[in-house]
MarR family transcriptional regulator (Streptomyces glaucescens), 147 residues
Amino acid sequence: MSHRAANLPHLLGEARRWFEDAVFASMEAAGEQPVTTAQASVFAMLDAEGTTVSELARRIGVTRQTVHQAVHGLIGMGLLEQAPDPGSARRRLIRTTSEGRRVHERARAVIGLVEAVLAERIGRAGVDAVREALTADWGEPPLVRAP
């Protein structure tokens, strides 16, 4: 991971890209179909019973069109499917197929292995400190006065 980024948001972004690069490359090396960052984000935000495109967009923080494109790519790969929402005849739920669940579980295992490599490189205490800081309650985003 490079250290060109001087501020925390950039460092966090570089850390995320480091993980994604490792996970995506490892999954492809294991013979899995390549996915994009947007497609991986869809998987991370899906509820077990399914989630609407609108809700996925809200959770990920992107437009419905962006999620729609990612979802349809994953449907084409056989990893997701659309199903009627029992709570509304107008909505469709996006959910994983059995193949999608298999790939998602494999990706979760790979993430654990990549985290173990990181712990070897920076120490378990460092990984634990990062996890503790990122899972702490930061409260609402502050509104600060720009200098």
Notes: The chain has six helices and two strands. The CA atoms of residues 119 and 128 lie 9 Å apart. The longest helix spans residues 98-122. The mean pLDDT is 93.
